[in-house]
Structures are given as structure tokens and as C-alpha cells.
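Appendix C reproduces, verbatim, an entry submitted by the partner laboratory led by Prof. M.T., so that reviewers can inspect both the input and the predicted structure.
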Amino acid sequence: MPAVGESPSVVTAVQSGDEEAFTTLFDLHRKELRVHCYRMVGNLDDAEDLVQETFIRAWRGRSSFEGRSTVRAWLYRIATNACLDAIKRSNRRVQIVDPSAIAGRGPGFDEVPWLQPFPDNLLEPDPTHSGEPEAIVVAKETIALAFLAAIQHLEPRPRAVLILRDVLGWSAAETAEVLEGSIPAVNSALQRARARMQDIVGPSQPEWSPVTPPSEDERRLVQRYMDAHQRADADAVIALLGPDVRFSMPPELARFDGFEPVAGFFRDLFGEENPGEWRLIPVRANGQPAAANYVKTWDGTTFDAATIDVFLIENGQIVEITTFFADSFPSFGLPVVFEEPRT
């Protein structure tokens, strides 16, 4: 773990109580700490709170930093323990709606009702921090929704070990230092976490993909979906779906598995009695293509924020749609009321 963006003079200033220097140093790691906390708890609002808690804990305990590890490792230790404490306080448990879905296909997102999407724009480097390490680190890591849902099925400490070892690529010794445990304990926890993940997602699960720019084919497919959705054209939307498509709407315990159930959902949504009038905006979430949905208000003058659909696309077809409600719009920088430009 290279000590990126820190110097002895900055560390000395932090230890002596220079709040401005401390804040500057912390901000170099803020984005990657937010992603780390998000992986741990699966909820963006909670992750934001935990980053702030990490800042407060680090500031209050700054005199304890002796420089034997990097500032980054020190902050990760504080953030990880803040997450473990939060998980213990929340007493959240995944809800297994259909146990058969945990074998080979991976968990349904409705089993993790606190799951929230992570806007890709929050991964973009801050131009005011030219030396920020997270711009490199985050780009190599996955925040795919399927990964987030799966790791919520792990016990908290094995979850932390899996993230630090297999996602961040830290050594057993570094991970043991963060968790204030032994190397054998870390290795044992990692073995258990890997075995549990294999039980959840199956042995055929490919490597988790890092965040990558959308392909032109993805863009075209999402545009076709948005055009069909705005026309309330159920048949055109259904034509884009894969044969084993799955649709879920966390936190609702609602899931549609398979082509016919999902097709039926869209036929009902765009029914003749109330097809609605929609406007969609392309966005990105969790390294995946997505679309923000607005529906026209009853008075017909504006469009209200409705949902954000996050897609998994394979072989030119939509194989998973995860729908989140309007409370996610602000984190994407989207207005909750949309008014079309007058022509």
C-alpha cells in the first residue's frame, strides 16, 4: 500500500492539530473510503454517514497515529471498524425470499432491502485533487450490484476480510493490521468468505468486473429501451429482454423471474387504461448502464421523478433490471421535478 499523497510534514501537521492539513489529507482518500463503506453496508446514505464518522474518529484519535503504517491504512482501519460497529447496531439481516435463487444465479436484490445504487459520477476524480489515490484504486474495483447483494450475505468480519483481500488486494498482514487480528485468523475468515460466496453465486460466476466505460452497443440498447419506455410500448421493451431476465425493486419484496413474468409486468405498466407519459434520462450506476424515469404529473405540466432502472446487459439483451425509487435521484445530481424545454 504505497503512501500516496502524504509527506512527513503533512503527517506532523496532522498530529500537531493542524485541522486544515488534516482535512486536506483526509479528502485525498474520501472517495475510496466512501466506496469501501458502501461495499461494507450496501447503502450509499449510510456510507456517507460512515465516512463522516471516520473523519471524526480519525481527528479525535490523530495523536495515536505513529506513522508505522500509511495514513491510508490507518483511515481504512478506522472506517472498517466504524462499518462493523454500524452493522452491529443496525442488526440488519438479508431476507431470503426464494432459497433456490441462492444456488448458482446469485441473490435477488429484494433480499437486501436497504440496497441503494451508487452513481458512477461519484467515482470521477476531483480536478482539485490531482494526486488523489482513489482515482486509480476505485477504477480497478467492482461495485456491481450483484457483488454488493452477495457480500451482504456474509458475516461482517469475513465480509471485511474479503473486501480488503480480494477486492482491494491487500496482503494478509495488512488486513490483519486493519482488523487488529492475527494473520491465521484473517486467512481463516477469507477461506470461509470465499466458500460462502461460492455457495451464493455458484462456481460458474465469472470474475467481478471493474468499472468500465459503456460500450457503444450498450448505449444503443439502453437508448432503444428508453425510446420504447417513453412511448409506453410494452412489446418494444419486451423485445429487448433475455429469456432468463429478472426484475426486482428493492426495498419492496417484489421480484419477477423469467421472461413471461417480466413481460407481464411491462404489459401491466403500459396498460391501455393508464399507460402514463414518461421521460427517461441515461445515467450510470454501479458501473452499469441505467435510466432515470420521470412520469408526467396529473396536471400535465411537469414530470415527477419516479424510478432509476439499473441494467445488466449480456449478449445484446437485458438480463436484469433493478429498479430503485425516487429518493436516489439527488445522489445522481438529478432534479426530482423535470420540465421539458419549451419549443
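Residues 1-5 have pLDDT under 50 and may be disordered. Additional entries are available on request from the coordinating office.
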